[in-house]
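S.,

Sequence below, as promised.
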Amino acid sequence: MIRFSLNGTPAEIAPDAMLLTHLREALGATDTKVGCEIGRCGACTILHNGAPMNACLLMGWQVEGAEITTIAGIASVPAGEVLVRAMEIENGFQCGYCAPGVMMSLVGLLSRDAAPSDDMIEEALEGNICRCTGYHSILRGAKLARDMLKETTE
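The prediction came back faster than expected:
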């Protein structure tokens, strides 16, 4: 078995198991959504040692010793709480199905760069498909989070 950390809690996975399936079925982490299962929609985006990755493309052997963070652990990431608040203010999501993946992509970006350009925000979201919002409210929320993070560092 391969050992890793899930939202700060020790976990194990078989080397040949898909991380997405294992998270949901074995560990009960249904906050990570199933979408296309081929890495194109972003619904299953998690943080792997702080970097956004599609859980449907990760196998157990690839997470050995890793810190895996799902949307349930977003509060443990400093930019996470700010992003959650900004999305609430801007009504970032409608149905919420894409929300976990979008949020993890954005918190990964904001953790690396607290003041990303508009182009960087759009690039970070390229792997996430949302069929409800048209992205405008998501982009407003991301930009507000960036502005809120800037205020805290100034």
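The beta strands are 2-6, 9-13, 45-48, 51-54, 67-69.

Coffee later?
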